[in-house]
Amino acid sequence: MRLAISLCLLLWLCLMAVAQADVRIKDIADVEGVRENQLIGYGLVVGLKGTGDNLIDNIFTKESLIGMLERLGVNTRDQAAMMMTKDVAAVMVTAELPAFARSGSRIDVAVSALGDAKDLTGGTLLVTPLLAADGEVYAVAQGALSTGAISARGAGASVTRGVPTAGRISNGGTVEKEVSFQIDKAHGLWLGLRNPDLTTATRISAAINRALGPIARVTDPRTVQLDLSDRDAMQTLSTIENLRVVPDNPAVVVIDEASGTIVMGDNVRISTVAIAQGNLTIRITESPQVSQPNPLTGGVTTVTPGTSIQIDDQHDRKLGILHSGVTLRDLVAGLNALGVGPRDLISILETIKAAGALQADLEVR
């Protein structure tokens, strides 16, 4: 009875591990052609409380303000030299146009100061056309922006939290032009893997063919081609994106030296190697002693130097051996046993790679 329960528990754990390893195709691949498009525009933010651009030093802000007023029927060319306001700032406006966005739908926009404005908090972005790479206007942005920053200044000190010269306008953009792309009319589509891998692409193709018949084939490690000549494209994609596969990842160790962060893949393997880690540390401490003679003895006060020298050669660190084929878990456990910190671990991994014992790609950023 106990044996049966143990076998059932083991089988359940195995099934849970497999289920956790499975991912949906929609989470690791995209339909080629279905993507976002970047938009950019130049505009003015008004309503700032003296924290905008200096019009004397920022000519483009001044000219933009004059041009905007002229379009509204206000002639300020004759008094341009007298314009000294600091309540206006020139900004760059950026946004992403989602795939299948329809005319009239709303998108978020980001606003960033272009001149020497100190704070955009509380400002309002005036109507700003947003252009794509083809030079066409696809959206128009306007609205009150929020920076989420705090800035306070006094006579002798100031404090700033966040970035007051950059903000966002939620739903501040209105789509004016659509990007035409019709999936339902397509006779063939391509799935693009976000992390190109031939094994993963083959598994995706096999899972699709098992579920829907021989409609998928792998063209390269990034692409799986779908033949939809006699099928409904939308219904087929709806089925495909929820199919589950087990992605295969290459053995990679990524090191960020700036922050000391190390990320290692599950397939990282180490050949037989011996590791010793330690540094010689010499610590010198000066503790001078003052010798004070008794009164009326005619003695002289003297200072006696006192020096303490400590040498730490880390003799308690032992040579560790990692046998061939050890896994990531064994590698981490072995290095932790040596008391290795992240900074030292970076040097060790680089040395292991140089010795040819690290069976993985080492990426240092």
TrEMBL record:
GO process terms (BP): bacterial-type flagellum-dependent cell motility
Regions that span the bilayer: none
Principal subcellular localisation of the protein: other
GO terms assigned for molecular function: structural molecule activity
Keywords assigned by UniProt, alphabetized: Bacterial flagellum, Cell projection, Cilium, Flagellum, Periplasm, Signal
Region forming the signal peptide: 1-21
Keyword Signal recorded: yes
One GO cellular component term: outer membrane-bounded periplasmic space
Subcellular location: Bacterial flagellum basal body
Superkingdom in the source lineage: Bacteria
Purpose of the protein: Assembles around the rod to form the L-ring and probably protects the motor/basal body from shearing forces during rotation.
Assembly and oligomerization: The basal body constitutes a major portion of the flagellar organelle and consists of four rings (L,P,S, and M) mounted on a central rod.
Family: Belongs to the FlgI family.
UniProt xrefs under PANTHER family: FLAGELLAR P-RING PERIPLASMIC PROTEIN FLGI, FLAGELLAR P-RING PROTEIN
Protein name in the entry: Flagellar P-ring protein
